[in-house]
Amino acid sequence: MIDFEKLDLYKDNNRLEAKRATGGLPQSIWETYSAFANTDGGFILLGVEENPDKTLNVLNIENPEKLVSDFWNTINNSNKVNVNILKDKNIQIVEYSGKRIVAIEIPRAERMDKPIYLNNDIWSAYRRNGEGDYRCSKDSVKAMLRDNANETQDMIVLETMPFSVFDYNTVKSYRNVMAASRPNHVWEYLDADDFLLKLGAIGRGEDEKLHPTAAGLLMFGFEYEIVREYTHYFLDYQESFDADLRWTDRITSTSGEWSGNLFGFYYKTYNKLIQNPNIKIPFKIENGYRGDDIPVHKALREALANCLINADYYGEGGVVIKNNTNMITLENPGTLRIKVEEAICGGFSNPRNSVLMKMFNLLDIGERAGSGIPNIYYVWATQKWESPQIKERLDRIERICLALPIK
Predict the structure, then answer these.
(1) Residue pLDDT, tens place only, 46-63
(2) Structure pTM?
(3) N or C: at which end does the chain have fewer Cβ atoms within 10 angstroms?
């Protein structure tokens, strides 16, 4: 929020745009509306100009009521803006030192409303980058359209693919882990294909025949089959525990030494992450056995599963996990489907790939209630480590990065 009694203390930035508007509603306001809505929201101040040092100079609008009326008339014109996401409370006339201005609060648009675009041209969508409004790339618009759908990305039935895309050794390994996590589950004695159908790894297409789903391909497929659907698919674990070496270990989905799917990558990577030398494992005995699982382990499982579940596998850059002595970072292609603040507070789950979430949940990995990220922050606080950081990159390559300091 803005404290309008202290406007002189603010500067134009990536969440605040000043426009003179003394001659009427500026045309550039719509690009800024689109950019704020498609990024992380922000404020537009009409009747304010930016000084050379980026501080704000409050002018005066003679008839702000007309400006507000013109704004509402235009934003509700679908030929100008495809969606109006504002309510009456988002616009107010403010008085500052005897001068009147208009303040417009633009919230971050919900994924179902994106992209916000102009002039009946879906490619005229904008994003906020630094202090400017920039037209979205076609890849960014396509990514927003994928997230716009009611069904999550991994529900797609891939009608051109046969069951031979699956590595059935991976399916067997998954079932063994599930049997240990959920003994005597009702699916335990199903044959492989019936099990995959119940799991959501295969589904019925428009041709009324069964085919792999996107989730099934990603979780159980061979890497060389996965890249037929996801051109940019790439999984990369990088370990650096020695300053003199670029990597002390590395795992990639393209090595040809293993299946290259998400299930295999998850377990290979998790078993490496918990060997970080700064994660101390207390020695304790439970029921006659050593119990090595600690809250940090659970938090790392949450973080890794969350990274894989929320990746946009059509996006560029792949999944990259970096395990350094004092920092673990997890990066995936795509943007956040909710605000950073909402992810940290928890209580709301909006996965990009809901079937993958179900598959991990059945192994007791990940949380459906949106408590995964808050739990990571809580565990890091109890360890007295620096707080985790979630960052969203919105330039040509869209990325989400979770940084976990271990110090």
Answers:
(1) 999 988 888 888 898 999
(2) 0.81
(3) N
